[in-house]
Structure formats: C-alpha cells, structure tokens
Amino acid sequence: MKSPLRQMCFCVIISCAPALAQKTAPPSLPAGASLVSAHAPALPAPRPVARVNGAVLTDRDLLREMYTIFPYAKQHNGGFPTAMEADIRRGALKMIEFEELAYQEAKRLQMTIAPERLAASEKQFRQHFSDEQQYEAFLQTEASGSRQVLRAKIKRSLLIEDFLKTEVNDKSAVSAAEAKTFYMKTPERFEVPETYALQTISILPPRARGAKEAAATPATPEEMKQMRARAEEALKQAKATKSYEEFGVLAEKISEDDYRVMMGDHRAVKSAEIPHEILAVVSKMHPGEVSDLLQAEGVFTIVRLNAHYPSRLEKFGEAEAALRAQMQSTKAERLRRELDARLRKNAKIEEL
Question: What is the pLDDT of residue 328?
C-alpha cells in the first residue's frame, strides 16, 4: 500500500480537470508538485465525484490518483489508453474513497500528529520545489493559496499513513518461523529445475530471420545443402575455440540466430525448454565442451556447454528473504481488503 503522503509528495501529478488533462501532459516535476504555469489556462473549479459520509472528493483528487496508478500518462499526451481508462478510473475512485474512510476512522480514534513531525513534513515537502514560484503555483492550485490548507492536507496524509501502518503494515509482518513453516509445508514451491548454461551458433534457412521463424519456414533441399556447408565450416571454427569469449566472438560474427548479439549466450535454460535432439547431446557433455553439428527445428546448431545445474530443492536460507516479502505482501493486501470492507460496511458513499 502506497503512503498517501508519498503520493502527495513524490508522484508526478497534474492538477487539472480530466478534459484539460487529455490535452496537457503532466509536468515533469520532482516530488509531485502539481504545477500549472503562469501561462496555463485557468482551471475549472473542482467537480465532486463522490461523497464519503458527507466529505466531498473531487475530480482533482481522482485524477491525481489515476496518475499515481498510471504514471506513464505523460507518454500518452497526459491522457490514458482508451482500453484502460475506465478500469484506471474505477480503481482510483475506490482508492480515494478508501483513503477518506481511513482518514475519518483515524480522526474517530483521536489519532494525532506531533507538531514537530508536521513541521518537518511540511519543510520536506517544500524542498521538492525548484523555486518559490513553483511552490506558490502549487499552493494556489491545490490549497487556494493558503499555507494553513496545505498544512491540513499534509496532516491528513500523515494520519492516513499512521492508521494504515497500525491496521495493515504492522499486522502483516511475517516472522522467520512463519516463513519456515510455509517452506516446510510446500516444498514443491522451492524446487529449482534442472538447467543448462549454453552458447549457440546457428545456421538458419535463408528466408528465416530468427530461430523462431526457422521451423515455420522449411528450407528446400538445395537450401539445406547450402546450410549444411555453412554449418560444417562454422563447426570447424567453433571446435578451434578454447573459451567462452572465443566462442562468443565467433557467434557474434557468424551465427544467424537472435542470440548472436549476446555472444550466443542463452544463460541458464530449463531442460524442459531445450529441444530433445539437443538435450540428448548436452546432457552427456562436460562444461567447456563444444558439440558436433546438431539439427533441430529446421536449424543447424553448434552448442557450447558452460555449466549444468541439476534440479534441487532451494534451501530455506536462500529463499527466506523473498519468501517473507512475498508472504507479507499477500498478507497486507488481504488485511487492506478486509479493512476496506469493514470501513465501507456502515459508511454512506455516493458516487456522483
């Protein structure tokens, strides 16, 4: 769950009505300053999009959240892809409703923000503007020119942040013991498949542009004859290489598959993904060996085996950090959904 203060301070956003947003890309300001320049047209008054227990949420709140969800909007001229816009809007609306409910609950619980923390947050917020003019433009747009209003917005964000920390973040912590129990109960999830680290030099049919197209573009008998001749010459050169680098340089020079730009290196490939004709050979090779000429899927291939990694069970120590992070994320999302449902249960929410 993102921090509301982080959203307010650190996301690049634009503060304008949706119709204007379709024409104007969000300005690339650090730390989320919603800046409208002195030369920009005046913005329409905020339009209500929802009421949450009487509190009004506006189209500006909604648009800001939409840009948080889809930060690539500036690559789309400040708008959203047509196929995605409705879903982005729906998700953003639910999020701003949820944050308003969280804020109201924090106030009901009489949660407070220490004055010195509020002052520090306000100071930190101001540091994200390049100059006073930028800050004043933001203040006019987002807080009606009032520093008191801005301070109240920052306080609201901090209260939401603290409430969610108590109700979601703190409760979603996963101990090493919990992770170990999960690990022991689901060993199949930690099985690391057998892999082979391979380099290849491939000779393709002349009409094929890559290994994937080769099988779909079968060569004529004459083309096969020409391919074999090129492949046999490539094999002589490949057999003369003595290292990963030498084979890789040769692959860059003469290979015709897509991996030539990476020195023919396929990295670690799962055995299940290797054509059986090639797997039957490499499974009997030793690291550093170069195969004879192989033919699979319409391609002549020469393989260098760099390493073989048998299947194994990942040790708990290897998996622990990622596992705990994944478990915590899953738990936090469940707690957030449950909290959202609980807060909405007796709330009056009107979407306008």
Answer: 96
